[in-house]
Amino acid sequence: MAKMLEVVAAVIQDGDQFLVCRRRAGKAAGGRWEFPGGKVEDGESAADALRREIQEELAIGIRVLGELTTDDTLVGDVVIRLTCLRAELDGPRPIESTDHDSLAWVAADDLDQLDWAEPDLPAVRQLIASVT
Fold first, then answer.
1. Does the predicted model carry a pTM greater than 0.85?
2. How many domains does the chain have?
């Protein structure tokens, strides 16, 4: 049986744009885009894990608004269960990331122009569908 990895990601909307982050080369899915986030630690809620990960990666605060999607994606011999939570900034926009080599703010109808990490695709499709 495949190992399960619980992961959360922030779908941060500011105006009509969403924050997207490109994974550094050398990491799994390096060079591909994703919503920022990370692993859920034992005993953490998804929202608590997300606030912690965003503070660690982007040095910003967020307000978690609710769940957008939860999907399982088999990557190698691991099932990644990614819960994407809608969020908004609690302060200024981030300017750098400890885990990514690029940050961008992208309108929903331009999200399909990016090369996405596979686990993020269901949330991307839902966001695109919500604006068309």
1. yes
2. 1
